[in-house]
Amino acid sequence: MSPTLDMDGCYTYADYATWDDGNRYELIDGALFVMEPGATESHQDTSSELFGQLWTFLKDKPWKVYHPP
Question: How far is CA 22 from CA 2, 13, 53, 63, 69, in A?
Fold first, then answer.
């Protein structure tokens, strides 16, 4: 079921539980946030490669690199 959403509305978990349109939503204190879709495989491959190269470069130095969730 595709919800009719009012971005200024106040929602409950019961409302959220009925939204099965394939989109990602988050409720914070009743406020609705539409989440971006997850990263594509290509994006994750590129990000992993970049992280690996940065980690290798910095591993013997006093700095650190962190991969975001």
Answer: 9, 17, 35, 40, 21
